[in-house]
Every structure is written in structure tokens, then in C-alpha cells.
Write a structure and sequence with these properties.
With 266 residues, the protein is α+β, with helices and mostly antiparallel strands. The chain has two domains: 75 residues, Glutaredoxin (3-Layer(aba) Sandwich); 174 residues, Up-down Bundle (Glutathione S-transferase Yfyf (Class Pi), Chain A, domain 2), CATH 1.20.1050. Helix content is 63%, strand content 6%. It has eleven helices and four strands; from the N terminus they run E-H-E-H-E-E-H-H-H-H-H-H-H-H-H. Strands 2-1-3-4 form a four-stranded mixed beta sheet, covered by helices on one side. Helix 8 crosses helix 9. The termini are far apart. The structure holds glutathione.
Length: 266
């Protein structure tokens, strides 16, 4: 029996990177303490939080007083520190496949999903603010690339220069997933792994943001989504945290963006 020292997760209800870690915690049945960070009011940019996570993003895990950032790294840490049940395939080749999936998320897919979310939906909550308040919010974002992405999303919405490339990248992802899942039940091969837990909230986000027809058109992705959404870790790590007002906004705006999404996807 592994002794579980205190695990505290700084996270946000609707954040995909946070959900990614909550699923791992739930898959492993680990007890954890929640510290909810309100991203819209800028809690992540406050000095106290920045001292834990200098990037001003969620999630951050604190284990026994030690801080770990970056959701992919946190997932790997949890799997190493609490090996049962293992979320890393025992077969070396499958472990490599798992890493290639999670690497892609860190090297562009997360950014594409963030662009999609900001341009379709989140921009509306920033547009409601007085301009000076939004400028002050922007100025506090430590990373220049993220700052520019938000500025353009708020200013230009679906006409933001990053929007169409992000849609095309995410459609390509669904094609790649469908290809893999045509011959294997899980993304890395024969067993559920950190790749499946990581992509679960992203596919849900796509579903919320008008990508439903793209998912339905790919039968293997649809069947995989049904399987991961039916796991108990989805209920306790994702569904229970979803903010109904946020989901309704995403779905409404996703519907409005649908025509443009279909035109871009071709
Ligand atoms: N590479 C980071 C990305 C984290 C990230 O971008 N988190 C988003 C939420 S999903 C965030 O905190 N955004 C800050 C904001 O919206 O103000 C990770 O995987 O942990």
C-alpha cells in the first residue's frame, strides 16, 4: 500500500490542462485537495500564485510541499510516484507512442485548442469588460505569445490570424486519432494510458465548440470518446467540475461558428 502524502492541486474547473491532471488523480484513486483558481478574474496572475507557477497558468501540483508544474509532467510524476494502476504501457514501443501523443499536445495542440476556445467563446467575457481593465489583464500575462494570442482573439474573433490554422491542425488531429484507433482500442495501443487521459478533455472541448460533426464523422474517435467518457475518472475528474454556464456559452458560440468551421475544414 503506497503512503499518500498530501497532494494539493491548483486548478480551474473548465481548464483542459487541469482536467488532464484530475483524470490521472482519479484513475489512480488518489485523495487530493482542491485549490480552485479563477482565471477570468486573474487569480493566476497574482504574486502568490506566480511564486508557485511563474507562467501564470493552471494546473500546479504541490506534493508534500514540493511544486510541480506543466500538466504532462505532472501526469508523468503521478504515474511514477503512485505506480498503481500504471498509466504507462509496459511495452516499450507503446510507451514511445504514448509520449508522441502527449508531446504533440505540448508542441502545438494545446495552443490550437486555446486559440479555438478564445476566438469562439472566451473573448466575449473579455469584451464585456471596460477596455482599460482588459488592457491591465493582458499586461499581466507573463508569456508574450499567450498575450498576443488573447489580444488578437478578443479583437478579431474568428478572423484572428491564428484561427483557421488552429482549426485545420485540430481536424488533422482527429484524422490521426481515427487512423490509430481503427486498429487499436487506445491511443498508445492495447492499454489505456496517459495519452488517453490527456486527450479526453481536449476532445470534449472540441465537441463543445462546434466540432461535433467532425467527431461523429470519425467512427473510431467517436467510439473512443464514448469509452473514455464512460470511465469513472471522467465523472469525478471532468463532468463534476464542468461549469454549466461556461458549457452553455461554448455550445452556443460553437453553433454560431459552425459554418465557418465547416468552410475552413473543407
Ligand atoms: N503547458 C501548460 C499549459 C497550461 C495552460 O495554458 N493553462 C491554461 C488553462 S487550460 C491557463 O491557465 N490559462 C491562463 C488564463 O486563461 O488566464 C500545461 O500543460 O500545464
Amino acid at each position: 500500500m503506497v503512503k499518500v502524502r498530501a497532494l494539493r492541486l491548483y486548478h480551474n474547473d473548465m481548464s483542459v490542462s487541469s482536467a488532464k491532471v484530475r483524470i490521472v488523480l482519479e484513475e489512480k484513486g488518489l485523495p487530493w485537495e482542491s485549490d480552485h483558481i479563477n482565471l477570468r478574474t486573474g487569480d493566476a496572475q497574482k504574486p502568490q500564485y506566480l511564486s508557485l507557477n511563474p507562467n501564470g497558468v493552471v494546473p500546479t501540483l504541490v506534493h508534500d510541499g514540493r511544486v510541480i508544474v506543466e500538466s504532462t509532467v505532472i501526469g508523468e510524476f503521478l504515474d511514477h510516484a503512485f505506480p498503481e494502476p500504471s498509466l504507462r504501457p509496459a511495452v516499450a514501443y507503446e510507451a514511445a507512442r504514448m509520449r508522441l501523443w502527449t508531446k504533440q499536445l505540448d508542441e502545438g495542440l494545446h495552443a490550437a485548442t486555446a486559440t479555438l476556445t478564445l476566438c469562439i467563446a472566451v473573448r466575449l467575457s473579455h469584451l464585456e469588460k471596460p477596455a482599460a481593465e482588459f488592457q491591465a489583464f493582458l499586461a499581466k500575462i507573463p508569456d508574450a505569445e499567450r498575450r498576443e494570442r488573447l489580444r488578437l482573439a478578443v479583437e478579431k474573433g474568428l478572423d484572428s490570424p491564428g484561427f483557421a490554422p488552429a482549426v485545420r491542425r485540430l481536424v488533422r488531429l482527429l484524422d490521426e486519432m481515427d487512423g490509430t484507433l481503427a486498429s487499436d482500442p487506445w491511443l498508445a495501443g492495447g492499454s489505456y494510458s496517459l495519452a488517453d487521459s490527456a486527450f479526453t478533455p481536449y476532445v470534449l472541448r472540441l465537441q463543445h465548440l462546434g466540432f461535433g460533426p467532425f467527431i461523429t464523422a470519425r467512427p473510431h474517435v467517436s467510439a473512443w470518446a464514448a469509452r473514455v467518457f464512460a470511465r469513472p475518472s471522467f465523472e469525478s475528474g471532468v463532468r463534476k467540475w464542468l461549469n454549466p454556464v461556461g458549457v452553455a456559452l461554448y455550445e452556443r458560440q460553437g453553433e454560431i461558428a459552425r459554418e465557418k468551421l465547416l468552410a475552413i475544414a473543407g
